Amino acid sequence: MKALIQRVTFARVQVDGEVTGEIERGLLVLLGLDKGDDQASAERMLDKLLAYRVFADDRGRMNCSVADIGGGVLLVSQFTLSADTRKGLRPSFSSTMPPADAERLYDDMLASLRERHPAVAAGRFGADMQVCLCNDGPVTFMLEV
């Protein structure tokens, strides 16, 4: 499981011109699910996401998490993060979780995230989405569990 997290001042996702999720200050999370990922790895990822210190404290150091600042989390499924790009000029998706399984795990993660954090928004699984954001810093990290 991979999560590309970006510290943002705002982020929004649209499907067919309709806004499906929007946050102000917080984290945009692009989530890639791999074969073998399960509920346990999903919970570990959520623990890490909510506690990862990427926001500045009073001294300007990255010592605060999204939970500490009460920021938003925008969760967007992105299967291309699971692509194998080591060989050739075309990505291989042989290591990605099958779509039906990935959708179930994504939905479970989203439900769990909403139980654990007050400000959560989301994209639409499997849809052609347009994501608009202002990366703050820029600060971007790849988390893996």
Question: Overview of this structure, please?
Answer:
The protein contains three helices and eight strands; from the N terminus they run E-E-E-H-E-E-H-E-H-E-E. The chain is globular. The strands form two sheets. Strands 1, 2, 3, 6, 7 and 8 form a six-stranded mixed beta sheet that branches. Strands 4-5 form a two-stranded antiparallel ribbon. It is 24% helix and 39% strand. The longest helix has 18 residues. Strand 6, helix 3 and strand 7 form a beta-alpha-beta unit. It starts with a strand and ends with a strand. The model has no long low-confidence stretch (mean pLDDT 97). The chain has one domain: 3-Layer(bba) Sandwich (D-tyrosyl-trna(Tyr) Deacylase, Chain: A), CATH 3.50.80. By secondary structure, it is of the alpha/beta class.
